[in-house]
Structures are given as C-alpha cells and as structure tokens.
Design brief:
about 190 residues, alpha+beta, Aminopeptidase, 7-stranded mixed sheet, about 25% strand
C-alpha cells in the first residue's frame, strides 16, 4: 500500500500591483462588487439603491485605483471630497476636520474599497488603501472614511494602519436597514504621520 500524496497546493499568487482605474474596468468591477457582497455584506444595502457605476464613483471620484494580480483586476478604491447630500454630512465633516486640524475642504473620503472573492488574503485591500491615502495626501487632502462594525475585516485593516474613530452616527439609510438596535456607522481619520 502506498501512502496517499497530499493534494498539490496552487503556487502563491503574485503580489498585487496598483494602477489608476480606467473606464473599461467598471463593468468587471461592478460584477466583482456584487459577487463578494453576500459574504462580506459590503455594500451593506442589498440590493444597492444605485447602479454599481454610481457606487464606484465612476463620475465623481477625485482619485480611483484598481489592484491587479497577473493582469486580473481584483480590487477597487476611490476617494471623494467632503461628505455631502445627507443629514449628518456637516457633522461628519466637522468631526474629521477638527481631528485633522484642517478646513472641511481639505478632507477626502476613502470609498468603495473592496477585494474580489478570488483574491482575498493577498494584500489587495492594504495595497489599495495605501495607494488612495498617498493620492489624497499628494493632493493636500486629509483622509477620512466610514465603516460599519459588521465589516470586521475592513475595520481591522483600518485600525492596524493607524486610523482612529472620531464619530459614531446613525444615518437614516442605516436605520431603515437595521432599525434602531443596529450598530452605528463609525467615522475614522488617519492622522498625519
């Protein structure tokens, strides 16, 4: 009797490379976003109340990047200007500006950060976050973001990178999804090094 061979393990994937997002990336990114949503619960609202192009800030991003592994686009991040358009926008902006010691117009919010299911565990999220923070800082902006405690992996990524909480809020869209008993959205900043 011969001993059973252990199953062959796939070779490790190449490290992710990060580049600016192109318009041609958007359809595949939209598919990847919706494919990973049932497991990660990001975006939290399902179905999305807007198109994936709107969610990915196809038209209003101040900066947007994708990660590739071996030529395959496997992740996304964007940044926008100060929060606007909902009741807690001013409160969020004021808390972030106060924490950074800057004017509201100097804020950039990290948005739409996700990794495709097929690339989880390869450093895609960290690579994208580093790229968008560098982009914001190069523009003279101070990085901010929002995260739900439900998104434990993202929260861990942010905390391990030095981000800190500055505000907990309950936006109307969240109350309509989880009710009054659910968690608040945590607003975070990355202090200047």
């Amino acid at each position: 009797m011969t001993a059973a061979r252990p199953p062959a393990t796939p070779p490790p994937a190449a490290a992710p490379t990060v580049r600016r997002r192109r318009p041609s990336d958007l359809p595949g990114l939209g598919t990847d976003l919706l494919e990973q949503q049932p497991r990660t619960r990001y975006p939290f609202r399902d179905p999305l109340p807007v198109s994936t192009d709107v969610f990915l800030h196809a038209e209003d991003a101040l900066g947007a990047y994708v990660a590739e592994i071996d030529g395959d686009v496997v992740g996304h991040v964007a940044r926008t200007g100060p929060a606007h358009g909902f009741p807690d926008s001013a409160r969020m902006n004021e808390a972030c500006a106060r924490a950074h010691g800057c004017a509201v117009e100097d804020l950039s919010y990290v948005s739409s950060l996700f990794t495709a299911e097929r690339a989880r565990g390869h450093g895609v999220g960290r690579s994208l976050l580093d790229a968008i923070v560098a982009d914001a800082r190069a523009a003279g902006h101070r990085p901010c973001l929002e995260v739900l405690p439900h998104h434990a992996g993202a929260r861990h990524l942010y905390l391990s990178g030095g981000w800190r909480d500055v505000l907990a809020i309950r936006p109307p869209w969240l109350t309509s999804v989880v009710g009054e008993e659910g968690p608040d959205v945590l607003v975070m900043v990355l202090p200047t090094e």
